[in-house]
Amino acid sequence: MKTVLNQLNQYLGKILLHRSSYSDGNSLYKIISGLLHSRKQEALKQNIFLINAIPPHIRLHADQDKFFMILEKLVSLVLQYGRETQVIVYARSYDDNLIVNIKSTKTYNSYAIHYQFDELQSLVKSLGSVLEMKSVRNSETTISLRFFNKSSNDLFLNGWA
Questions:
Q1: Maximal CA-CA distance, the chain
Q2: Secondary structure of 83-128 in HEC code, one letter for each residue
Q3: Please, what is the Cα angle at 107 between 140 and 128, to 5 degrees?
Q4: Of 116, 99, 109, 110, which is closest to residue 134 (Cα–Cα)?
Q5: Pairing state of beta strands 48-52 and 85-94?
Q6: Which whole-number Å values give the CA distances from 138 to 46, 75, 85, 112, 145, in the listed order?
Q7: pTM, rounded to two decimals
Q8: Alpha-carbon gap, residue 52 to 89, rounded angstroms
Q9: Which end of the chain is more exposed for a tag (fewer CB within 10 A), N or C?
């Protein structure tokens, strides 16, 4: 099983490297790739396969530091309570909104995730974002982060601030 995961990870790593050449500094795909790459060793130890399924055209216009901090905590939670699973990060954007989903196909302690998830809610709300979690006990868990994808400069220039 580990050999197959390692081979698949190497193959996808080549694809990810190729796709990232289309990216610029605010590419959500590139941001997520960096985050997942930083957690790669931890994931491999637990037989977790990390998948970045973000379309290359989606750009992050909101505060990248705050977004990264929240997403890093969410990925950490999913890795902490997952074993022999796939963690898929995918997103969609519409108008000025962005929804980022983190899906684990096998979570062994969704109660623990939910408890720590609640602690993140205040930070998420302070950014005007919404955090939701759907889970099936000891099975699939999906965490969704929905937020307004505009920078404060864009709001100011367009007369919103």
A1: 55
A2: CCEEEEEEEEEECCEEEEEEEECCECCHHHHHHHHHHHHHHHHHCC
A3: 75
A4: 110
A5: parallel
A6: 16, 17, 12, 11, 22
A7: 0.74
A8: 5
A9: N
In this structure, which amino acid lies at residue 91?
Answer: A
Structural domains of the chain ordered from first start: 2-157 (3.30.565.10)
Q: How far is CA 156 from CA 40, 108, 122, in A?
A: 39, 45, 25
153 confidence band (pLDDT: 50, 70, 90): very low
> What are the DSSP E strand ranges found in the chain?
48-52, 85-94, 97-104, 130-135, 141-148
Residue 107 structure tokens: 């979570």
* pLDDT tens profile 106-131: 876 667 777 777 778 887 887 788 88
Q: How many CB atoms lie within 10 A of CB 36?
A: 17
CA dihedral 128, 67, 137, 12 (to 10 degrees): 150
